[in-house]
Automatic annotation (TrEMBL):
InterPro entries with a match to the protein in the record: aa-tRNA-synth_Ia, Anticodon_Ia_Val, M/V/L/I-tRNA-synth_anticd-bd, Rossmann-like_a/b/a_fold, tRNAsynth_Ia_anticodon-bd, Val/Leu/Ile-tRNA-synth_edit, Valyl-tRNA_ligase
Gene3D superfamilies to which the protein is assigned, alphabetical: 2.170.220.10, HUPs, Isoleucyl-tRNA Synthetase, Domain 1, Valyl/Leucyl/Isoleucyl-tRNA synthetase, editing domain
Protein name: Valine--tRNA ligase
Residue stretches making up the Aminoacyl-tRNA synthetase class Ia domain: 14-592
Organism: candidate division WWE3 bacterium
Amino acid sequence: MEKKYDHKIQEPEIQKKWEEKGIFTGKIDKNKKPFTIVLPPPNANGKLHTGHVLMLAIEDILIRWKKMQGYSTLWVPGTDHAGFETQVVFERHLKEKGKSRFDYDRDSLYKEIWDFVQENKGVIESQIKSMGPGLDWTRYTFTLDDKVVDTVYETFQRMVEEGMVYRDDYIVNYCPKCGTTFADLELRHVTRKDPLYYMKYGPFVVATTRPETKFGDTAVAVHPNDERYKEYIGKEIEVEGLNGNLKLKVIGDTFVDPKFGTGVVKVTPAHDKNDYEAGRRHSLEIKSVIGLDGKLNENTGPYVGLSVEEGRKKVVEDLQRKGLMIKIDYDYEHTVSVCYKGGHDIEPTVLPNWFIKVENFKKPALDVVINKEVKIYPRWREITYVKWMEEMRDWPISRQVVWGIRIPAWYSVEENPSIQVTFLNKKKERITGKVSDLIKKYSFSEIEEGLQSLIAPKNAKSIISKARPNGNYLQETDTFDTWFSSGHWPLVTLGYPNSDDFHYFYPTSVMETGWEIIRFWVSRMIMFGIYLTGKPPFSDVYLHGLVRAIDGKKMSKSLGNVIDPLDYVSEYGADALRMGLISGTANGKDFAFPRDKVVAYRNFANKLWNMARFILLLMENNEVVEYKEGNDKNITDVDKEIIQKLRSLIYGVNNSLEKFRFSDASDLIYQFMWHEVADNYIEYVKTREDKGVALGVLKYVFTTGLKVLHPFMPFVTEAIWSNIETNGLLIENRWPE
Ligand SMILES: [Zn+2]
């Protein structure tokens, strides 16, 4: 046995031994009970962060523990295409080459991103492997694999047939100058001065920077606790307008800042994000007044056809003439969103979107948690889930992103002449317009081949099909919300609907993930699992806390406090990092990165190594009287006591792990090995005359302790085992009863 434990040499070697023996390849064994976990897929294009390490450590503990208990375990790895995030990274890469996504047609752009991700995804995979997790890489899945796309398409088709899908307006960041939408991350926020207009609104005065959108107002809002206006809430007011009078409801909603302007705001759900959300909460009408061309539309009466700037000027003049403009504050500073591409003002606009009706879809997913068919740990997180499910409204599932699963809806250009298309013509010029106009100038195939995006009206006719229908059909350019496809994760990773794996390993056992995605992801997996198979996809959910920086703040690049876990692996070893994080978890709460603990567990690994060396030294000089459980002849009361403590350790660790109290479990085994065995019992063994008997007990206690410690610190325990024992790898041994 080497004098010192060197994790840099041992960890990769042991990892290789597990791999070569196929230890973690899932096997269908009808004589065993399955225990299955699917790994929440990290971004294929990303880097390992501390949250991943915590997730890997927890899931690995469960897998090793259950495997040693005799279950047929399977832990399926995968990576995520991370739709929008990846597209943004790719665009930065394009920018370095002096290009942008607007230089490509949709299909070419997709292929470029695909290649880019393939080149990069090896990084995260090898980083995951360096943590020693018992994943079955023969069953690896990427979220854009054909099998995933096929399953998602089948589900969508079924939902359409069952009347669960409809099209309705949804608010997006639209740039009329670029003719496209931008995701929140693609916006720049600039501070500038614009006039703030105080307009008379029935009994109120409202302040706004956008008087030209008043034709789209469908309510006015006040803060529910604002004493000045409380009596008006729920009542209707009449507002003298420029295009006839408006009747508007007064709503009370906490999104209103009572200190802004007069504390009364107009609500324009079609052209403001906050107003849109308020509109959904209060079931307000959505009235669009600005078209995709950036001009005021027919809902503005005499102002139709004016640009937003012209319209604003004219509206202000007309309001002043009618005496409805109370005052103008020319010194108002505010933040506006502009597109990253050209710095143009973003026009929040409602565009037709695909929606899923959730009322019947979500109910069973709420019921299984309430009746404990699916148990959530820590228990106090259950409230988040229940509340979210109760409040969940219909789900908008389309995204204006190329990098994702394209919605399989096809529009006939003859039947839908008003579709707006943007495409690159043969000269690579970017053309935007109504398809019925463009088709006079360009051939259908030129439009289709160069297609970048399309916007089909709400009532457009479409065919849902994986294959292209015959005729002049354009496919929807929106992709599914990633949660729509990742909601299928436990199904697609196991070969739903008909594979042997699926029949044996589904439903899975535990879903372990960060608490911040319980609403987006966990709920969707339960919904799809029940919808497609009648069974929830897992019986237990464990939600780990967020790993914060050493100073307790959230890690962020701008604060410069991001911890690279690989630095710690290299300095202290994967075992030490894993154990440090586990014992710092506070059983599911957020916690600061426990640097001191990582150091302490590096020391612990060295301590274990030295203990093993001491035992080996004794074994060289003494005949071991092997100790067998239950055979208490010849042993002393102190021997009996340490064996008793070992039994309570096993009981305690099992009990804690069953309750997902990883921190408690890791503390128990640490205390036992260091304080009970090393500090006390070994010292006692040194004093014994009957060394062989004492050594037998020590060896038994130590190797049993190694088994219990193995799921937590797999490398050092496996390395020690191979020096002391001859019966295979430690991970192949049975968990102590
Ligand atoms: Zn723009």
